[in-house]
Amino acid sequence: MPQNPPLAGEDLSDGTSVLIETAFAKVNLALHVRRRREDGYHAIESLFAFVDDGDVLRAERRDDGALTLKIDGPFAAGLDDGPSNLVLRAALELAHCVCPSTSLGNSEGGSQDPLPHWGASLYLTKNLPVASGIGGGSADAAAALRLLNRLWDCRLDDSALCVIAESLGSDIPACVISRTLRVEGRGEALQPLELAGLSSAPILLVNPGVPLGTAPVFKGWDQYDRGALDSSSLRAIITEGRNDLEPSARVLMPEIGAVLDVLAIQSGVELARMSGSGATCFALFETTAAAEAAQRAIARAYPDWWTMCGSLR
Ligand SMILES: C[C@](O)(CO)[C@H](O)COP(=O)(O)OP(=O)(O)OC[C@H]1O[C@@H](n2ccc(N)nc2=O)[C@H](O)[C@@H]1O
Ligand SMILES: Nc1ncnc2c1ncn2[C@@H]1O[C@H](COP(=O)(O)OP(=O)(O)OP(=O)(O)O)[C@@H](O)[C@H]1O
C-alpha cells in the first residue's frame, strides 16, 4: 500500500502531474429481469443512477512503460492489486485497443518489451465495499478508462470507451457515463434520461457488511417475467419499479431484509430498495438533513453496517 499516494493535481518533482477520477457508486433505482438469454446472461431493464461519491483513482505517467497499481482505503484489504484487478484489466484493454501491438509491463518485471507511452502508476482509494451491488469494481474500471484516455491522450469518445467497457463487465459501459441512464440488454444498451425530481436527490446507502457475488443471485432468479420498466417518471419508478433480484439475494443473505426494514421507517424516505444484486440497499430522501439524520441513527444502532450519504449526480 502506498504510504503517501499523490494528491489530485499535485505537481511532482519531475514536472509531471497527477490526474484524478472519481469512481462513482452506482445504484439501480429499479432492476427488472425479463429473461435468461442463451449466452447465460439475463436481459435486464434498469434505471441506473450515480452517487456523487465513491472510490478515487489517481494516475501519473511513467516513462519506463511499467503499469502498476497500489490500493489503500477502508476496503483495500483482501483486494488483489495484480492483473486480475479490473483497473489493470481496463488499462490493458484500452492500450490494446488503441495500439494492438502494445505490451505493458509492471515493475515486478512482467513485460519483455514495454512501450514508454503506455506506462502509468495508478493509485486506487477503495471507499466502496467489494461485491456489494453498487458497481465498485465496475466503477473503478470505468474510471480507469476515462483517466488513462486522458493520461495517454488516446482521444476516444464515450461511445468508443463503452465498447471497450462492454468486454470487461455488464455494468462498466453505464459506469463510463456515470449519469442517470435507462439500461437494457445485458447492460450495454444505454439511454440517457433526465427525470424531474431526481437530480441532486439525497441518497443513503447501507450495506450489512458481508460480500455477495452477482452470479449466484442471478442464478436464484425464479425466471418469472414480472413485466417491463416504466421509466417515464420518478413516481412510476417509486410505485411500479422493482428489483427482481431482491428475493433471490434475500435467500442468500437474509440481513438484506433487516436493512430494508430499517431504511423504510426512517423519516423523510421516498423510496427504499436493494441495488443491483445486493446486498447494498439505498433510500432516497426528501432532504439532505433527513438522509444525514437517518445515517447517524443507523450507524449508532448497527455499527457493523457500512453507510454512505450523498446526492445523485
Ligand atoms: C446486477 C447488475 O449489477 C445490475 O446493474 C448487473 O446486471 C451485473 O453487472 P456486473 O456485475 O458487471 O456483471 P458481470 O461481471 O458482467 O457478470 C457477472 C455474472 O452475473 C451474471 N449476469 C450479469 C449481468 C447480466 N445482465 N446477466 C447475468 O446473468 C452472469 O452470471 C455473470 O457471469
Ligand atoms: N477494483 C476492484 N474493486 C472491486 N472489486 C474488484 C476490483 N477488481 C476486481 N474485483 C473483483 O470483482 C468482483 C465484483 O466486485 P464489485 O465490487 O464490482 O461487485 P458489485 O458491487 O456486486 O458490482 P455490480 O453492482 O456491478 O454487480 C469481486 O469479486 C472482486 O474481487
From TrEMBL:
Catalyzes the phosphorylation of the position 2 hydroxy group of 4-diphosphocytidyl-2C-methyl-D-erythritol. Residues 232-303 form the GHMP kinase C-terminal domain. ATP binds at P129, V130, A131, S132, G133, I134, G135, G136, G137, S138, A139. Pathway: Isoprenoid biosynthesis; isopentenyl diphosphate biosynthesis via DXP pathway; isopentenyl diphosphate from 1-deoxy-D-xylulose 5-phosphate: step 3/6. Keywords: ATP-binding, Isoprene biosynthesis, Kinase, Nucleotide-binding, Transferase. It holds the Pfam family GHMP_kinases_C. GO terms for molecular function: kinase activity. The gene is ispE. The keyword Nucleotide-binding applies. Residues 119-177 form the GHMP kinase N-terminal domain. PANTHER family: 4-DIPHOSPHOCYTIDYL-2-C-METHYL-D-ERYTHRITOL KINASE, CHLOROPLASTIC. The active site is at K26, D171. It catalyses: 4-CDP-2-C-methyl-D-erythritol + ATP = 4-CDP-2-C-methyl-D-erythritol 2-phosphate + ADP + H(+). Its EC number is 2.7.1.148. Belongs to the GHMP kinase family. IspE subfamily. This is 4-diphosphocytidyl-2-C-methyl-D-erythritol kinase.
